[in-house]
Amino acid sequence: MKQLLLIVSLLFSTLAWSAPKSELWPYWKQSNEANPTQVSHQDWQQFLDSYLVKQSQHTLVHYQAVSTEDKAKLEQYIKLLEQVNPLDYSKAEQYAYWVNLYNAVTVDLILNAYPIKSITKLGGLFSFGPWGDDVVVVNGKSLTLNDIEHRILRPIWQDPRTHYAVNCASLGCPNLQSEAFTSDNTEILLEQAATEYINSNKGVLIENNKLQLSSIYEWFAVDFGTEKQLIQHLDQYRTKPVTNTNKISYDYDWSLNQVD
């Protein structure tokens, strides 16, 4: 009986997760380009400085080492962002705001459940991860991580590099950047993140005349265009051109991006 329940649970969990479509939430497509002020992400930067560790192709989070004080500071940072009205700011400032909020909330969710082997273990019994759960309230509106990524970031900016900016706390994911996003450094960080990922084995692996890509390029193929356009995108950042495209396989490692 237990084995049957486990099989049913795994089946429902798998079916419950599929790559969400990019569907604009029109309310958030407003900005004030005349406002030159910036949102402070200093607290998030301090967290990154304290707990990010570079290991080979991965940038890992030292979840186990996070102090009670720094956990409280992270929660306070998220609460402060909830009190910001992003629509009062420029689009460039909004992009940094949403990316940092997404990443900070993701780390906080892991810390709340730590120790845990994978973010996919979070959420309800039949959920595959926490992406559909309400996690923050901005302008009186409850938001999920899916809302931030697929109803705000993707449809408004329509930049495939967003997939390299938001982090899902997994080894297969593009690295959490060591710098908090700002309106000043966003372009630099997006280019850096894309270059890192596409030149890593978790992004693009060419081995034994076979091409294996991250599942991101399969899940969100609509953002990268045709196969030809995808290869052009990859070659834009690769130190060596992508070859052996006759048959492409996809893979993704959902293991937690933790320091062992």
From TrEMBL:
<dbReference type="InterPro" id="IPR006869">
    <property type="entry name" value="DUF547"/>
</dbReference>
<feature type="domain" description="DUF547">
    <location>
        <begin position="89"/>
        <end position="198"/>
    </location>
</feature>
<keyword id="KW-0732">Signal</keyword>
<dbReference type="Pfam" id="PF04784">
    <property type="entry name" value="DUF547"/>
</dbReference>
<dbReference type="InterPro" id="IPR051548">
    <property type="entry name" value="Grx-like_ET"/>
</dbReference>
<feature type="signal peptide">
    <location>
        <begin position="1"/>
        <end position="18"/>
    </location>
</feature>
<protein>
    <submittedName>
        <fullName>DUF547 domain-containing protein</fullName>
    </submittedName>
</protein>
